[in-house]
Q: What sequence folds into this?
């Protein structure tokens, strides 16, 4: 196989790409990047100096591909599967791209702000930034609840890149900033995501690392014991 995906199994943005790959049975191998280990970090910075994961290396084309949305589009272009993550119809493709960005920027980013603030040293917390992140999630959840009132997946009847992006942000977000009781469409959408085989596989592979999650004490038992992914 020519594709190597550099990841960490707990990293939310890595989940987005793994879900897309599993949906299409992409032939690839994964390699874990340990950013706490000097050698692994140095190797990854040589690969992609920005230092973010995931990053894809295509040995057959001698190409390093960073950024989740670009990785998914690259693989669809050069190693297409049966389910396009970016729809062929132009209008549908724009919708998928819009909601892909929405979930990354307005769910994933504020969720990570809340989570990573717990990792800061004593006295270094950003209370204002965390409060802003909670407000951002309030807005995003309300918008998603409205979007999902008449849809199965984020942009309609077909599972797309937008749903890949939605999953990790909502999974971890549901713990650090729970959905409102009356957000029934959002809650139902989240359960549909959890029932998807590609998502079950991704989260089950992440489960051995859940002890590293800074909000582990609020993780529902069905996630911790894996029954949600069986």
A:
């Amino acid at each position: 196989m020519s594709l190597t995906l550099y990841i960490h199994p707990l990293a939310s943005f890595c989940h987005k790409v793994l879900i897309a790959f599993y949906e299409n049975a992409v032939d690839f191998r994964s390699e874990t990047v340990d950013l706490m280990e000097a050698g692994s970090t140095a190797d990854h910075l040589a690969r992609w100096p920005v230092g973010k994961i995931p990053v894809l290396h295509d040995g057959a084309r001698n190409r390093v591909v960073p950024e989740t949305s670009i990785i998914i589009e690259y693989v669809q272009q050069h190693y297409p599967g049966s389910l396009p993550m970016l729809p062929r119809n132009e209008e549908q493709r724009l919708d998928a791209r819009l909601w892909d960005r929405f979930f990354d920027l307005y769910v994933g980013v504020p969720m990570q702000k809340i989570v990573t603030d717990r990792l800061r040293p004593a006295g270094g917390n950003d209370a204002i930034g965390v409060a802003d992140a909670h407000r951002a999630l309030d807005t995003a959840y309300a918008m998603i609840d409205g979007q999902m009132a008449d849809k199965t997946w984020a942009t309609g009847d077909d599972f797309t890149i937008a749903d890949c992006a939605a999953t990790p942000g909502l999974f971890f977000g549901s713990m650090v900033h729970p959905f409102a009781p009356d957000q029934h469409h959002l809650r139902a959408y989240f359960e549909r995501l959890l029932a998807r085989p590609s998502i079950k596989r991704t989260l089950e592979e992440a489960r051995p690392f859940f002890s590293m999650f800074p909000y582990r004490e609020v993780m529902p038992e069905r996630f911790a014991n894996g029954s949600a992914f069986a």
In short: The beta strands are 3-7, 29-32, 55-58, 63-66. The radius of gyration is 17 Å. DSSP finds nine helices and four strands in the chain.
